[in-house]
Hints:
Helix content is 76%, strand content 0%. The relative contact order is 0.13. The chain is an all-alpha fold. It folds into two domains: 3-63; 70-281, MetI-like fold. It has 14 helices and no strands.
Amino acid sequence: MTRQKLKNKMPKIVINLVVLVSMLLWIVPTVGLLITSFRPASDVVYSGWWTVLTSPLKFTQYTVENYKAVLSSGGMSTAFRNSFIITLGGTVIPVFLAALAAFGLSKLHFKGRGFFYALIVFMLVVPTQMTFIPVLRLYNKLSLSGTFVGLWLVHTGYGLPFAIFMLHSFFQGLPDELFEAAHIDGASLWTTFIRLAIPLSVPALASLVIFQFLFVWNDLLVALIYLGGHESVAPLTMRLSSLVGSFGQDWHLLTAAAFVSMVVPLIVFFSLQQYFVRGLLGGAVKG
């Protein structure tokens, strides 16, 4: 390889090295937590997780007892069910409503369209914490505190601004001629939305589902505010937070509990990852 070729490839090599180092810095803590989740308490107390790397055969001696202890703890199955119910409603409702709103704001022509879109974008900068007290007071009057419906509505309200903003950019990139042709052929507005807009926006919708699902599934603060001490509807995050107090310094159990909560989001992400990048970049260039 000549000096000139090496000089030309240097920027690419440097970028690759930076990406590799960044990836290692990101992965190493997760690998440490994963290894710790399989280690017995005695090993966790007296040695670091990296000692396993020096003797890989020792890792084969570890069992899933930590995971059994976490899953067998009281209320874990109920917390799993509650998380699924909360996340399902907290994802489907805002994504569907955001698709309707984004389609209307991007493809329908009416007075005040720009104002309403600007108002929605402005809501992105409103701190969520500012809404806790007024919304909670309203919930107490309407008896929505401590209910699945109340949490669905809250996650819908918090998720809609970003969801509409993201889908609006994607719908804007769809050619207007396509919808005009469908309208000339006699298709109703609802038909064009269901038969054209939705199928064409699958990548964007999948990306939005991933974002919203992860936000709702991993949420603890909103659940604590609006569910309070109602254990019958408490999600997995609230249950795991209580394990921190009960397990104390039992890091082997806490790390196992953390990975239990990560299983479902990982399944959702890897199931929809083929659409993820396409959905994020779909509205970057107008077609």
